[in-house]
Design a protein that fits this description.
single chain; 295 residues; alpha/beta; Rossmann fold; 7-stranded parallel beta sheet
Length: 295
């Protein structure tokens, strides 16, 4: 049950996950307080027009963050992928500590599905488990979500779609679990509405699961012509520790752990399949990826 008097402070509200959360919360009747770096940007102004309260500040502005948490019911904490690992850990711990100090009733941290029981030695992959460990030690109601690979990752320009193929990390017969960013907000609405159920929960989130062959068929149908699928070669994977780690995780690590999609649909009845996402929210991204680059 929502609390119309106390807002949710949303970080990254003009980004992919935070934007999904802000919009879903507003639609569900939650007041939203959004921390944004620039209140004059189009995405921020759109949020304001939809009813969000804008707070100008950055992850460095501790006093602004503390003030923004005053009187808030909950916090959604997420970080952009362009942060250094050191800064991500620093900001993640700082924001969680301020939430505990200011009496936030429900703190939700968006981590990553590649988080496992052991550190990898790769700083950017180890940042999120370090934040998770700190969040779990705090004396407040917390929920950690771990979204699987976002659907947008498969329709980025430069991965072969403009040449009629998709090159990715799984073998054709293996499966990959994908998350639609639009589903994140709907999960947050359900999580905040049932604090007792999701207190101290670590929830892996997925919207769909497809093999490489099924990706080929789904993309071909969406494009209207054949799209072939292939895995990155072992030589390419050997040149990138990040790609190699993700490929290994998809085969026999945290990213390979099967998520019960029916349980996901019970929490979020509007769960998006990859096919339905390509036909709607992802259509523009797909069209851009299919278009040959113009130099």
């Amino acid at each position: 049950m929502t609390n119309n008097k106390h807002p949710i402070l949303v970080f990254g509200a003009t980004g992919r996950q935070g934007g999904s959360v802000a919009k879903a919360l507003l639609k569900a009747g939650w007041p939203v307080r959004a921390l944004v770096q620039e209140t004059s940007k189009a995405a921020a102004l759109q949020l304001q027009a939809e009813g969000a309260e804008l707070v100008q500040g950055s992850f460095e502005n501790i006093d602004v963050i503390r003030s923004a948490m005053q009187g808030a019911y909950g916090v959604f904490s997420v970080f952009p992928g362009n942060l250094t690992a050191e800064n991500e850990v620093r900001y993640g711990i700082s924001i969680a500590d301020i939430a505990a100090e200011t009496g936030i009733k429900h703190f939700v941290y968006s981590s990553g599905a590649s988080v496992g029981n052991q550190y990898t030695g790769i700083p950017r992959f180890d940042a999120k488990p370090r934040i998770e460990a700190h969040v779990r030690r705090l004396d407040m109601v917390t929920t950690i979500i771990r979204p699987m690979i976002f659907m947008e990752m498969l329709v980025r320009p430069g991965f072969g779609l403009e040449k009629g193929r998709l090159i990715s990390l799984i073998r054709p017969e293996h499966s990959i679990q994908l998350t639609a960013a639009e589903d994140i907000g709907k999960f947050l609405v359900a999580i905040l509405a049932d604090k007792s159920r999701f207190n101290s929960a670590i929830l892996k989130i997925a919207s769909d699961r497809l093999t490489g062959c099924e990706l080929e068929a789904t993309l071909s149908k969406a494009a209207g012509y054949p799209i072939t699928y292939e895995r990155f070669s072992d030589d390419v994977l050997a040149t990138s520790a990040d790609l190699a780690h993700m490929a290994k995780s998809l085969e026999n690590g945290p990213l390979s752990e099967l998520i019960d999609l029916e349980a996901m649909r019970e929490i979020n009845p509007e769960l998006l399949t990859f096919a339905s996402w390509l036909a709607t929210f992802g259509r523009n991204a797909l069209n851009e990826a299919l278009s040959p680059s113009v130099l």
